[in-house]
UniProtKB/TrEMBL annotation:
This is histidine kinase. Pfam families: HATPase_c (PF02518), HisKA (PF00512). It comes from Geoanaerobacter pelophilus. It is found in: Cell inner membrane. Residues 192-245 form the HAMP domain. InterPro entries: CztS_silS_copS (IPR006290), HAMP_dom (IPR003660), HATPase_C_sf (IPR036890), HATPase_dom (IPR003594), His_kinase_dom (IPR005467), HisK_dim/P_dom (IPR003661), HisK_dim/P_sf (IPR036097), Sig_transdc_His_kin-like_C (IPR004358).
Length: 472
């Protein structure tokens, strides 16, 4: 079953159909113009001939040359093609002179009432059909004398011309069918040939798997119209390859993080079961196991939060929060765990942020926790908040060993930890900054980190200020 908005016809068939329709319309218009041009040309020549013949007959009538008129009338009907029939009627509509055989072919009553002689030059002749013959006919009145009127009836047999037009129309129609058929075949071939690069791209796409993400489309030469598509596909593959690499790294780091506490739990359990031990020893084993359980719980809860944040399933309750109060509350809470480090708070009491209170506390708490763990012994941790035009910036700085610039871009990756530099023995899962970044994304803000070796690290949270934000 085709997807909504899609067609059962392939692109090649659709293009061929549109091309065929265009060719049909163009050929039809051209053929009709040719037919109309021919018919108009024949008609104009025929009318001109009729008018010349009428003028000659009127001239003979005006001269009273009945002999010449009789010879003209009789000779006009002797032509094999385009026979001209002429009849001269008296005042009682009785034939005086007429072309032989005109009587039984074209009776007097077949003509309309006579019109003055000057009118035929101003209007077309009538077309009449009699006995499978087609005639161009006219009847007009002429003055033989001042008191006598005569009627001249003239008819030109145009049956052969009509036959020519019919034959020409049939040939035009046959030519139209042949042209459309040939155009359809040519269009189908040209379309199929033109779409071969798309087929090649599809074949190459089918060859790309999770283990072959290094393949690229731009490595081959494509038509100009498909170069943009090839480049876009390469950009997509770059993103996919980066995502797969991160997933592999994430899976490996996750396995490592979980394997460590599980190994500890298993080792302690095996040692405890190796021989009978005292109650105090069992208590120490249980206490140590609880620490590892708590570590596993924190990892699972952090991963669950990150998964919910990625899918935007975190329930948010935005409110206006005085940043100074939150920072002082967190300072008081972490003062007990500061391990001899001092806090400095630089925050204007008038700084407010529009955020979820729980998530805001969690983000700042993670930064303070990192500053305590990685700050220098007896160093200072600075908590600062300020209004910066469209943003409210909250930063946490420490005076630790700092981080090399090559690691800064990856610090927000999950489970990523900087090895060496005196941090190898510091416990952590490498999820704290990932959670901070997810919290900032949920708030529509950003997080930035700057660091200098030997001087310390600063992490800055930037919360956007709503246009309708209320000031205290």
């Amino acid at each position: 079953m085709p997807l909504p908005g899609t067609s059962k016809l392939s692109i090649a068939n659709q293009l061929a159909a549109y091309f065929l329709l265009s060719v049909f319309i163009i050929l039809f218009i051209c053929m009709m113009m040719l037919y109309w041009g021919l018919s108009q040309s024949l008609k104009s020549h025929t009318v001109a001939y009729m008018r010349d013949e009428v003028a000659l007959i009127v001239a003979l009538v005006d001269l009273g040359d009945l002999g010449g008129l009789s010879r003209k009338i009789i000779s006009s009907g002797e032509k094999e093609y385009a026979k001209l029939y002429v009849r001269l009627l008296d005042a009682n509509d009785v034939s005086v002179i007429e072309t032989p055989s005109m009587g039984h072919l074209i009776p007097v009553k077949a003509f309309h009432s006579p019109v003055p002689y000057n009118l035929p030059a101003l209007h077309d002749f009538d077309k009449i059909k009699l006995n499978d013959k087609v005639y161009l006919a006219e009847a007009f009145a002429v003055n033989v004398t001042a008191s006598r009127l005569r009627t001249v009836q003239i008819a030109l047999d145009i049956s052969n011309l009509e036959h020519v037009l019919r034959d020409y129309a049939i040939k035009i129609f046959a030519t139209l069918l042949l042209g459309v058929s040939l155009a359809g075949l040519a269009g189908r071939y040209i379309t199929s040939r033109g779409l071969r690069p798309l087929t090649a791209i599809a074949d190459k796409a089918r060859q790309i798997t999770a283990s072959k993400l290094g393949e690229r489309f731009s490595s081959e030469i494509w038509p100009r119209e498909l170069s943009t598509l090839a480049n876009s596909l390469d950009v997509m593959l770059d993103r996919l390859q980066e995502s797969f690499d991160r997933m592999r790294s994430y899976a490996a780091n996750l396995a490592h993080e979980i394997r460590t506490p599980l190994g500890i739990l298993r080792g302690e359990a095996e040692i405890a079961l190796n021989r009978k031990r005292s109650g105090e020893e069992y208590e120490r084993v249980i206490e140590s196991s609880l620490e590892e359980y708590q570590r596993l719980t924190r990892i699972v809860e952090s991963l669950l939060f990150l998964a919910m944040a990625d899918s935007r399933e975190v329930e948010m309750k935005f409110e206006q929060i005085r940043v100074n109060d939150e920072i002082h509350n967190l300072q008081d809470y972490y003062a007990e765990y500061a391990q001899g480090k001092a806090f400095i708070v630089l925050c204007d009491p008038g700084v407010f942020v529009w955020a979820d209170a729980t998530l805001l506390r969690r983000a700042i708490s993670n930064l303070i926790s990192n500053a305590i763990k990685y700050g220098s012994e007896g160093g200072i941790i600075t908590l600062e908040a300020a209004n910066q035009q469209q943003f409210v910036e909250i930063s946490v700085s420490d005076q630790g060993c700092g981080i090399d610039k090559e690691h800064l871009d990856r610090l927000f990756d999950r489970f990523y930890r900087v090895s060496g530099g005196g941090t190898a023995n510091i416990k952590g899962s490498g999820l704290g900054l990932s959670i901070v970044r997810s919290i900032m994304i949920l708030h529509g803000g950003t997080v930035a980190i700057s660091s200098e070796l030997g001087k310390g690290t600063t992490v800055t949270l930037s919360f956007p200020v709503p246009t309708n934000n209320l000031s205290s």
